[in-house]
Amino acid sequence: MHPLTISHYTVVNALGRGAMFTLDALRSGKSGLRSCNFMDAAIDTYIGRVDGIEEEPVVAHLKDFDCRNNRLAMLGLAADGFESAIAAARARYGAHRIGVILGTSTSGILETELAYRQRDAAGRLPAHFNYQTTHENNSVTDFVRRYLKLQGCAFTISTACSSSAKVFASASRMVAIGLCDAVVVGGVDSLCMTTLYGFSSLEIVSATPCRPADAERSGISIGEAAGFALLERTDGRDDAPCLLGYGESSDAYHMSSPHPEGAGARLAMMRALQRSGLDPAQIDYINLHGTATRANDRAEDIAVSGLFGGYTPCSSTKGWTGHTLGAAGITEAVISCLCLRENLLPASLNTVTVDPDFSMNILLENRNQPVKRVLSNSFGFGGSNVSLIVGYPKA
After folding, report:
1. Paired residues of 35 in beta bridges
2. Domain that holds residue 169
3. Residue percentage of the chain with pLDDT more than 90
4. Is 395 inside any structural domain?
5. How many CB atoms lie within 10 A of CB 136?
6. What pTM was estimated for this model as a whole?
């Protein structure tokens, strides 16, 4: 494939508003997870919550889109100079030549949950509730497109935890066939009762901060995040990270559980390597999906160690941010870009003793070394798998 330059990126999560907050936390080992204090959720777990969303309604001219998810999206767009970068791209290409492809798992479902709490005696939902501009999955993409004043093709991908990794693959194809000159990709997922109680009912939320790949791991810590990146055709630059390859697969194994031998995960990684023209030995670091559930981590270990052996350094960064579900792909793609820029390999935070049955090279301490290519995994609920390779094309 022809690499695409990741010319600008931004992320907002429990660590703060902007990529520098995430980088500072990675360096210092400071987690953004806290004991669950979201609304009246009576669940013994830890979450990655973004502070201040409740006090920041969306801009007045888009007030019909006001919901927690779109507020979070707006915080992401306002961070790291991303709006200015898009304005410059709009001047270069024209608004109609820049696409918007975003991922989310539940969009603004919290708005519907709140509306159901406000039903009248006859069971009618409140008059102010607007499903299309808040809860509907395309709400966030429509909001972002309008907010950034873009007119190119736009759509939403909702494949659970792989959603905002698949956007990179779709963007690559859209540019390759000439539908866009540049694409805003990203993902937004916000806390809601559906995910908190849903994953709790599956008995896979942890009562302590999540411990990916740990022998005593007990489940996920749910987080929320918004992240965005601008993808453009490469123009000879060698100072910016690029999307070098992607691989997609589907387990087709079970509604919720991954293939126990990691078959789909391995296929996604193989396809990413093939598309990039790289060998496993040319990957400097793997950002694992690493949810800290027993089944997911085990399947990923089998897939990764079977392809990369026990050499390539690996870690999960969900101990910092929590599992941000539909925003996990973009969150970890941005972290991968930070690893490239800073020559940093982050440890798996909270992991104390690696599962003795695992063969992956799990980092328990941060490491500073040259980083030229990173593989980032996002394996979705139900077996939707994506692997991305980001790096420097001339490395």
Report:
1. 46
2. 4-390
3. 94
4. no
5. 16
6. 0.97
